[in-house]
Specification:
Layout (H helix, E strand, L loop, with lengths): L1 H26 L2 H8 L4 H32 L3 H12 L1 H14 L2 H25 L12 H53 L22 H15 L1
Helix pairs in contact: 1-7, 3-6, 3-7, 4-5, 5-7, 6-7
């Protein structure tokens, strides 16, 4: 029970703090400024993907809580499966448990790596807009066109900076959530080992070696022969 409350408390604390900072940025007008400057709309795509990732985090926390409940009651299909595997191979059962738990965080890792990539895509597009050479002709004759090009360069640089900033912010936010889930997955693995469902490798008793019959020594063979000779004489 304490573990479940601890997991939910940390998750809610992390994300309420992030949402509070996001609300503060909105009240300051920074969110609208970022959206207005980003003509690529990448700064809207990143938050949508992030909150989809939060939904996956919530689903994963529910799954971990169910696993902790099954472990406390010593029941559940996954416990029986790992008991069967542990009976055959201790090391394989332990490794399989860790791989199974961390594999379920795969999509969250993909999202974590995707956010800075989207930010870099916005950076490249911003610099492409800033360095667009299609309007360079006739700048010397037309001052208004020159001013328009300066505005375009400022807009492109703004897109490059804002998309990079948004991508990094949401990557850090997702990394904290992912780290929490990884820690809880490791804690579940440790409790399974401590409960004896998958015995630790060090505690496993070595298999007894088959005894091989000892060969008789030459001295033992010679003694009965000597006794026989004395008897015949």
């Amino acid at each position: 029970m304490y573990g479940r409350l601890r997991t939910w408390s940390l998750f809610l604390l992390i994300n309420f703090a992030g949402i509070a900072l996001l609300a503060l940025a909105y009240m300051k007008g920074w969110v609208n400024l970022v959206i207005e400057r980003d003509a690529t709309r990448i700064t809207l795509v990143i938050p949508v993907l992030f909150f989809g990732g939060l939904f996956l985090c919530v689903s994963r926390i529910f799954s971990l809580n169910r696993a902790f409940n099954h472990l406390a009651k010593r029941e559940g299909r996954w416990i029986e499966r790992y008991r069967q595997i542990a009976a055959k191979s201790i090391s394989n059962a332990s490794e399989l448990l860790q791989v199974s738990l961390f594999r379920k965080l795969m999509w969250l890792r993909y999202l974590q790596r995707l956010f800075p990539i989207l930010g870099m895509v916005g950076t490249v597009m911003g610099f492409m807009i800033a360095t667009d050479g299609s309007k360079l002709e006739g700048i010397a004759e037309n001052q208004a066109m020159g001013m328009q090009l300066v505005v375009q360069m400022i807009q492109g640089i703004g897109i490059a900076l804002t998309t990079t900033l948004v991508g990094m912010i949401f990557m850090v936010w997702m990394s904290v959530n992912l780290r929490l889930l990884e820690t809880e997955s490791m804690r579940l693995t440790e409790q399974v080992l401590e409960a004896g469902l998958i015995p630790a490798e060090d505690s496993a008793e070595p298999e007894p070696k088959p005894e091989t019959p000892s060969e008789p020594s030459p001295q033992a063979d010679s003694e009965p022969k000597g006794g026989d000779e004395s008897a015949t004489s």
